[in-house]
Design a protein that fits this description.
Elements: E1 3-10, H1 12-15, H2 23-31, E2 36-44, H3 48-59, E3 64-68, H4 79-86, E4 89-90, H5 92-103, E5 116-119, E6 122-127, H6 131-141, H7 145-152
Parallel strand pairs: 1-2, 1-3, 3-6
Antiparallel strand pairs: 4-5, 5-6
């Protein structure tokens, strides 16, 4: 199954062209491992309403949305709030798995407020902003994304084999 995806980078500086987005292209490369095709890619400022609008727009078009950035503790980090506002069901285990993987490298991983959930038939996952954290976090969950997308789309097969 080909998974269609959108990548949304949240960065005030990136949206103004003051910083090159390294995480978005990295996500695109990592998604090739699960045969996902990135159809949409945008860089937006850390503005909750803009993020919500873009997430809702993408959710009508793709199977998977990955955001990068805006998951920390600074006042402008509003990606989790925007995501929670538009998802219908949260999937806490995905964000927990990413934090657990990050904690193997740094205690600061516990400060991530990343969220994962479902809107309609689209899986939405917040990733951190740094390329290193994106690689670590996405590697922890990449293999479950195809199964999650199949289930969200109504695959009736059993999850457990025993």
């Amino acid at each position: 199954m080909m998974i269609t995806a959108a990548v949304l980078t949240l960065s005030d500086k990136g949206s103004k062209g003051e910083r090159e987005d390294a995480s978005g292209p990295l996500i695109r490369d990592l998604l090739k491992q699960i045969h996902a095709e990135v159809l949409h890619y945008d860089v937006l400022p850390d503005e909750e309403e803009l993020i919500k609008q873009k997430l809702m727009h993408y959710a009508e078009k793709v199977d998977l949305i990955l955001t990068t950035g805006g998951t920390g503790l600074s006042p402008r980090d509003v990606t989790p709030e925007a995501t929670r506002a538009i998802i219908e069901r949260e999937i806490p285990g995905i964000a927990e798995a990413m934090r657990l993987e990050g904690l193997k490298k740094t205690s600061r991983a516990m400060l991530s407020r990343a969220v994962a959930g479902v809107r309609g038939q689209t899986l939405i996952i917040n990733l951190p902003g740094s390329p290193k954290a994106v690689r670590e976090g996405l590697s922890a969950i990449l293999d479950v994304i195809p199964h999650a997308v199949e289930k969200i789309k109504g695959d009736p097969s059993e999850c457990a084999t025993q």
